[in-house]
Every structure is written in C-alpha cells, then in structure tokens.
Design goal:
The chain has helices at about 5-10, 130-135, 150-165, 170-190, 200-205, 210-220, 230-235, 240-250, 255-270, 275-285, 290-300, 305-310, and strands at about 10-25, 30, 35-45, 45-50, 60, 65-70, 75, 105, 115-125, 140. By secondary structure, the chain is an alpha+beta fold. Strands 8-1-9-3-6-10 form a 6-stranded mixed beta sheet. A hairpin with a 5-residue loop joins strand 4 (about 45-50) and strand 5.
C-alpha cells in the first residue's frame, strides 16, 4: 500500500457517518468538539457561514468542502448574526457532525433561502493516529472552483445522491464513498502545499523521493528485519545522510518510526481479528511474544490482551 492509503486504513475505525441536511433561513447550528473524530461539511446548494471557535468566519458556497481533521467545534449558520440552536451532538452519545445518522433531514428554520449541506464524521483511534494527520491544520477549506480536481466533485455528487436518496446497496456504498472522499481531500491538501527547498514535515516527506522510498519499504513489509543501513539502501543514499534526512522531514529517526508503525499495525490487528498474539507479533517483526508485548505496552500503555479487550467508544 502507498503511505497515505495505509495511514487511513490503520487510523480509521468503525463506520463513518453522514447526513444530508436541508436548512431554511434563518438558521444556526452548533457542532461541538469531538476528540477522536474528523468531520466534514460540504455545501451542496445555497450558501452559509462557517464560524470556527478561534478564527474568523468563512463564507461557504455551493461545492465548497470543509474538513476538520481534529474534530474541532464550530457553527454553521445562514448569517453570522443568526442565533444558534443547541449543539447537534455531544459526549452524551449524539453523533458528531452527522447527528441525523445517515438520513436526509429537513431542518425548518424559517421561510428564507434554502441551504443543503452534506455533513459527516470519521472515527479515528487516538492510540494510533499517524503523525501525518496530527500535522494537519484544524480546518481545511477547499473552495469550489473550475480548477479543482474533477474526482472530488464526482465523489461528492455520488455521496450526496446515496445519502439523500438511499437505495439498495447504500449501506455498502456510503462508507466506501466516505473513505474515497477522505482520501481525495487529503491528496488535494498535500498536493497543494508549496514545495520549498527548506520545507520540513510530512508534506515535504511525502514529496521527497528518498524518504518516501524508505516509508514505502516500511509500510510494504513492516515485519522485515530493517536496519537504518537497509532502509538507506532502499532509498539510494548512504546511512548517515539518509538518517538525518528522514529525521528532519518526519520528525523522528527511521527506527523509531518503524517501531511506532509496527505497534500501530499490531493495534489494528488486535482489534480487527482474534489471531493469537504470537501470530500478530510475527506479522510486525517480532519472533518473541514477550518482546512484542513489552514493545506494545511501551507504545500504547497497556498489554496487548488488555488493549484487545478494551472497546472503542463509538462516536
């Protein structure tokens, strides 16, 4: 798998949620902060205002996509001055960003202009959130314009059709389309970051052929007996320059990242299967179940068995 696909596959958990909501002005809806989730808002028809907690209001028009990687609280309204209703979600079990549970809902406010929004949320496992996602800003706004990739528009159109008018197969189609939307948003964001010779961070790492070669090697075969020298050979660079370059761009040395990725992969396998610990240990490069258990506990704070028995709280 390529790195971005792998990151999403390991970090995302549970079923993503979405809802097709029609508001009639005047209206204002608060969405509370929900840690452990990533949300989105897509304006399908009309216009509205996004009111972040700690930033200036943002005018949204039809076709605009807003992605909130860290579950930041915010408000949507027809006008910044419109009174806001009670939160649509919260820690009491209501759903973040998609409180209407994949329904098509009419939220009558008044007799004014109509705004149709596709809203939703992805559940993330905080214990294995990739540093690539942690470096994203609180809010990513992708305005609708002629130069925007056609595939994002197509994904939004298909998703809106399935959520707005569910038919046979929608239970399978909607989660797949939500994952497609997430990958397109992240791809567009990373592709749009300016390339600078002195840039660091994951945007730079994913555009650096040396670092990406090593990352692909790690993600392709996490159980391989990697050393810094072997990863440097995969990247086509000598050991010391490679180690410096990898640490500069990703923020951690190659073998520390390797261990973290192995433990994140193991965490996913523990929750996704009932395979014996020795099998999972072997899949992430450990011949000793004891050594694997110690490494896992150092990373996640609990033994593998206890981690497996602790369910995630559904958003």
């Amino acid at each position: 798998m390529d790195v971005l696909s792998d990151v999403i596959a390991v970090t995302r958990t549970g079923r993503p949620r979405s809802a097709h909501v029609r508001w009639h002005a005047p209206w204002g809806q608060e969405f509370v902060s929900v840690p452990g989730s990533a949300g989105f808002q897509i304006v399908l028809e009309g216009s509205c205002w996004l009111l972040p907690r700690d930033a200036e209001p943002v005018r949204l028009g039809a076709g605009d996509v807003v992605f909130l990687p860290h579950g930041a609280g915010h408000t949507l309204a027809d006008d910044p001055g419109t009174p806001v209703t009670a939160p649509a979600c919260g820690p009491d079990g209501a759903r973040p960003y998609a409180p209407y549970a994949s329904d098509s809902v009419d939220r009558s406010g008044g007799g004014g202009p109509v705004t149709v929004v596709l809203c939703g949320a992805y559940q993330l496992d905080p214990s294995r959130t990739h540093p690539l996602l942690l470096t994203l800003p609180d809010l990513i706004h992708l305005p609708a314009h002629a130069g925007r990739p056609a595939e994002l528009h197509a994904a939004v159109r298909l998703l809106a059709a399935e959520v707005g008018n569910p038919r046979l197969g929608a239970d399978a189609l909607v989660p797949a389309l939500l994952d497609t939307l997430l990958l397109y948003v992240l791809r567009i964001w990373f592709d749009g970051q300016p390339a600078r010779g002195d840039a660091t961070g994951w945007s730079a790492a994913l555009n650096d052929p040396v670092v990406t070669a090593a990352l692909h090697a790690i993600h392709r075969a996490p159980a391989a007996p990697w050393t810094v020298a072997k990863l440097a050979a995969e990247a086509g660079l000598s050991r010391a320059p490679f180690a410096r370059r990898f640490a500069l761009l990703t923020g951690q040395p190659p073998l520390r990242y390797l261990t973290w990725w192995r433990m994140s992969t193991a965490a996913r396998l523990l929750r996704a299967s009932d395979a014996p610990l020795r099998t999972i240990a072997a899949q992430v490069g450990y011949t000793s179940e004891f050594a694997f258990a110690n490494a896992f506990k150092r990373t996640h704070g609990s033994a593998p068995g206890a981690y497996r028995r602790t369910p995630l709280v559904d958003i």
